[in-house]
Specification:
This protein has 296 residues and is of the alpha+beta class. It contains 6 helices and 17 strands.
């Protein structure tokens, strides 16, 4: 004989099903756990993770609110801690009943004190934006008379092409913002590769600083000593699941420098996985996808 289920029972069953599908997240963490910025203008992107009692974790970097107790020292802008003045500030995040806080120290180094190195700082921008890929300027013939080595394989040749190629017209040392190298990717001038960056982006500011400093190949400044990547490990739920990552370079005497965004690792888009190890990770059973740092 069929059994009737009352409204109260049905509500209880629905609540139980919802609880199974959406576990209660018990803890919140902010990474990096300690941040030391060189001086005003430096920044560090934040990674926020909620973890359930059963160990399942999810990224909440875009949904949780982060506040600074001293905006005059460190302010929060679009998921970044941005240094405003020397001092110390505490950042606090609150999300669905869970909270976390970290301390941020800001030094007194002026932005111009950090020298931009072509191979270290610019090639990563060209690679992540696809400029030196095989379908763009990294192709054997280049594009529109502008050729770069594939994925930055020959930094010296790339520097010579940018600085000396086309009779030096790609750079304007007297008026850096007017350089073609900046105006085309920001689409101030029509660009076949599309609109790749904004005037407010970290990539644009790095390129602009490099030109302002004379567009040198190397630098006499501090060197990269260590690169920390967060999270160090993450289990993805299945095909198409993604996890943003944050990088924290340590420059000179283990002094963390501001980071730049890195691409998402998506198991559902195998063409973006360039190493065999990444492809093997995404061939695992769906319950055990692990996002790991990109090789190289």
């Amino acid at each position: 004989m069929p059994r009737r289920i009352g409204a109260v029972e049905l509500s209880a069953l629905g609540l139980a099903a919802f609880s199974l599908a959406s576990p209660a997240y018990a803890s919140l963490t902010i990474e990096p756990a300690e941040i030391s910025l060189t001086g005003p203008g430096a920044s560090q992107r934040l990674l926020l993770t909620e973890t359930a009692a059963d160990g399942r974790a999810r990224d909440v970097s875009k949904t949780c609110r982060v506040r600074s107790d001293a905006p005059g020292v460190v302010r929060v802008e679009e998921g970044k801690a941005v240094a405003a003045a020397p001092g110390t500030a505490t950042l606090r995040a609150d999300c669905e009943g869970a909270s976390a806080s970290i301390s941020v120290e800001v030094g007194n180094q002026a932005p111009g004190d950090m020298q931009i190195d072509f191979a270290r700082d610019l090639l990563s921008i060209f690679t992540t934006k696809g400029c030196n890929g095989s379908s763009c300027h990294g192709s054997p013939a280049g594009q529109a008379g502008f050729k770069l080595s594939l994925y930055g394989a020959d930094p010296a040749a790339d520097h010579a092409m940018i600085v000396q190629g086309a009779d030096g017209r790609r750079l304007n040392l007297d008026d850096p913002p007017a350089s073609l190298l900046l105006q085309k990717p920001t689409f101030q001038i029509a660009h076949g590769g599309g609109h790749l960056m904004t005037l407010e982006s970290d990539e644009y500011r790095t390129l602009l600083s490099w030109i302002e400093q004379g567009a040198k190949y190397g630098s006499s400044g501090a060197q990269l000593e260590r690169l920390d990547i967060y999270p160090q490990e993450r289990i993805l739920g299945g095909k198409g699941a993604s996890q943003p990552r944050r990088r924290r370079p340590s420059i000179g005497r283990a002094h963390p420098r501001h980071d730049r965004p890195s691409p998402l690792l998506r198991c559902g888009h195998r063409r973006g996985l360039r190493s065999r190890r990444q492809r093997r990770q995404c061939n695992r059973p769906r319950s055990d996808y692990r996002a790991r740092p990109r090789d190289g």
